[in-house]
Design goal:
Layout lengths: L2 H20 L9 H6 L16 H8 L8 H4 L5 E3 L3 H5 L7 E3 L5 E11 L8 E3 L4 E9 L4 E11 L13 E6 L2 E2 L2 E2 L3 E7 L38 E11 L4 E11 L14 H13 L11 E13 L7 H4 L10 E16 L10 E19 L2 E20 L2 E17 L5 E14 L7 E13 L2 E10 L11 E9 L1
Length: about 475
């Protein structure tokens, strides 16, 4: 499709979004935390959900509580399990706790219309109700919190689409140390590791996913380190900088390591891994693509802006406009070290070539996030280094090193408080001993129109250049609605 036709189609999609504005109906927002504090979604979200503003990040890093005087702002009185006197009697009594007086749950509903002119099996798709997700969260006393997400329905064009599973569910322990919270926290359960360059769950570009969350090397099949759901334990914390501005954030964790069904798979090896899983399951052993465990770390420093653990007042974060503005620069470094299974001969099948471990890999890099006025610019350099314990043969050639460099840039702009365009550019540079893939670029864009504070209409598109291998999203147009209830 030439550039002119692409522009025409994008204009059509944008006009459709505008029409959708005038024919939409309102929906009353009752998200879990907004209900608890009886505050607007924009208290924590950056002009449009799910992206978090500085206050929202501080809220999350404080164990889903307000950075200071949390009890003052709670409007929904919790049910107490025990009294304050129990604390004085501890350990001869049970430490008290609280739960919310109403079920701490919310729903997120997606509906999308997609166009893919290059898809031979079908060029358009309307999923009706594409997904219904149950969102949960709350606090259990002053130092324990929890969060969960469980898709109740996902329309994938088959019966598997309605399978319910736990996407994320984790607990956070946030003790008070030296009269302060947030210095050290412990997170346990199923979560997205903080080593991930940028959270997939908090992205406002929905037409495609970050390549660093989906890319994997041929010998490892569909395993990717930055899979957004991992089982494990993570330690994290932070400290505000001088005068309460900016500051230091750190994180380190150990996770099981998992294969990703969403990972890019240039040689269509996912089916081979599934076959191995079924085979080993039939023999009575549980399949685990990672017989050892992965570990990672991350450190960030924010210059200027709101303190990383809060700074400024709640009233400032609740202002009707410009709550997304936080003039600041955040610099980060991260690494992820793991071990995955691999094929000696991916083209020949698993029967004689599969190893359940031996692909020792690193994922590391640096990133910068700059916020100024109504703009937010993010950039990351992510490096993939895979080294197999024995040579891998592809196309008659053998080798053991599979390296790649990925450069990501994303720009968000609040054109109006209810119109937020965003664009993303990704440049992937594989350098494999065997089975090498040419460098390529991808381009993604979304325009978000907030119909209501909890209802957004999006139009977007994703393209890839001619060097992109099969499996990378290319020439996809999407128009959708997302509602939080």
């Amino acid at each position: 499709m030439n550039l002119f036709l692409r522009l025409v189609l994008m204009c059509f999609v944008f006009v459709s979004a505008a029409v959708g504005l005038f024919f939409s109906r309102s929906a009353d927002a009752i998200p879990v935390f907004a209900r608890k504090y009886q505050t607007a979604c924009q208290t924590c979200h950056w002009a449009t959900f799910p992206a978090l503003n500085s206050f929202g990040k501080a809220f999350k890093d404080n164990g889903y509580t307000f950075p200071s005087d949390d009890e003052v702002y709670v409007k929904e009185s919790p049910v107490a399990f025990g009294g304050e006197g129990w604390k004085k009697m501890f350990p001869k009594s049970i430490w008290p706790s609280t739960i919310t007086s109403v079920p701490p749950v919310a729903l997120q509903i997606d509906s999308n219309f997609l166009v893919n002119p290059k898809n031979d099996k079908g060029k358009t798709a309307f999923d009706g109700i594409g997904a219904v997700e149950l969102l949960m969260g709350g606090t259990l006393g002053e130092s324990l919190s929890w969060f969960g997400a469980a898709p109740l329905f996902e329309n994938e064009g088959s019966a598997k689409g309605s399978e319910t599973h736990v996407e994320r569910l984790f607990f956070v322990y946030s003790p008070t140390l030296f009269d302060k919270k947030g210095l050290v926290n412990v997170e346990v359960g199923r979560f997205e590791p903080r080593a991930t360059p940028r959270s997939q769950h908090l992205s406002i570009i929905g037409v495609t996913r970050y390549l660093f969350s989906t890319w994997s090397t041929p010998p490892a099949s569909n395993f990717t380190a930055f899979f957004p759901y991992q089982n494990g334990v993570e330690f994290f914390g932070g400290k505000n900088g001088p005068k309460g501005n900016g500051g230091l954030i750190w994180a380190a964790g150990v996770v099981n390591g998992e294969r990703s069904g969403d990972a890019f798979d240039p040689d269509d090896l996912a089916g081979l891994v599934d076959s191995i899983s079924e085979k080993e399951g039939e023999s009575g052993s549980a399949f685990d693509v990672n017989n050892s465990k992965d570990y990672y770390a991350r450190v960030s420093y924010k210059i200027g802006g709101m303190g990383v653990l809060g700074g400024g007042t709640v009233e400032e974060s609740q202002k009707a406009t410009e709550n997304w503005q936080d003039n600041s620069l955040t610099l980060s470094g991260f690494f992820y070290r793991g071990n995955a299974g691999f094929f000696n001969d991916p083209e020949d099948g698993f029967r004689t070539s599969w190893h359940s471990s031996g692909n020792h890999f690193w994922r590391y890099g640096a990133e910068a996030e700059y916020s100024w006025w109504n703009f937010n610019l993010f950039g990351a350099a992510t490096y993939f280094s895979d080294n197999t314990a024995s040579d891998v043969t592809i196309g008659g050639e053998s080798g053991s090193n599979f390296d790649a460099a990925l450069y990501t840039a994303e720009l968000r702009w609040v054109a109006l408080p209810w119109i937020v365009p965003a664009v993303r550019f990704e440049n992937m540079n594989p350098s494999y001993d065997v089975g090498d893939i040419a460098s390529f670029n991808t381009y993604s864009t979304d325009i978000t129109v907030l119909i209501r504070a909890n209802v957004k209409f999006t139009v977007g598109a994703a393209f890839a250049d001619g060097n992109a291998p099969a499996g990378v999203d290319d020439e996809i147009y999407q128009m959708g609605v997302k509602i939080g209830l």
